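Figure S7 source data.
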Amino acid sequence: MAVIGIESSAHTLGVGISEHGRIIANAKEMYKIGSAGMIPMKVADFHATNVRTVIREALGEAGLKASDIEAIGYTKGPGIGPCLRIAQVAAKTIAAEHRIPLYPVNHAIAHIEITKQLFNSRDPLTLYVSGGNSQIVALDATPYLHYKVLGETFDIGVGNMIDNFAREAKLTPAWGSTVAKVAEGGRYIDMPYSVKGMDFTFTGLLTNASKLLHSGSHSIRDIAYSMQETAFAMLTEAMERALFLTMKKDVTLCGGVAQSRRLQEMLRTMAESHGTRFFVAPNEYNADNGAMIALVAEKMHASGSKQNAAACTIDQKYRIDSVRVTWQ
Ligand code: FE2
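Tokens for the predicted fe (ii) ion complex:
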């Protein structure tokens, strides 16, 4: 059973194909972000221009024809409205033309599920970190099987904090890896540290780092290092609390910011010190991609998830905890 998935929630246009839980294609094109950041309509235009080509590339990579595909999935949200619309329209068109089932996929769940699939981890405690989101989640069976949010950011995602700092410092995109490079060898300066139970906030930290940057009192290296260390320590502390609460046997890290080696190191140290396994997917699957959307669509399809045309919309704020998990 080959299932295709289309992802276009932000600057990446991805098309992946999965077959019996195995990724057999993962094609993508990325909109190049300039110093102005992402202009939604321009990114959506880029996706609209390239979507046919990337679908063709994915089919070629898998050695399949469009008529070999049994079902199709697309990212319903969360994400940027005009960008999300491109995958939705493309998927709806293909589903109608080939008379195959169509599945709306939650982007955060897709990041979590691909990591679970790669490491055969069935029930982990997950830290999902990206530009727009930072959440601690785990499966919960009450009142129905879903991903429960145990902790999350009260304001901006940790990726957004890093991007905003990088823009203030006039660094070049891609910002996360650029800030990490700048921070190498830095010395620690005290920064605002804000964890409430298993929730956290990042704007105070960003404001402080930006003020220090413009005051000229410290080097950009020390500021970037201290901001990053503080943010990642906050996430690790909240994850440690969640681990004690849930007693899960696995910890996973996923989403765009999961590509940070330093965050991986902190979480691995914390998890392993409690005898817990730690897993993080290769960068290819923590960056946005179509393969993870295909994988979840395949799980939805195989589990007999009901077809509901009315649910095949887009939702910029599509909450992970609003999704009923039918496939575990
Ligand atoms: Fe993502």
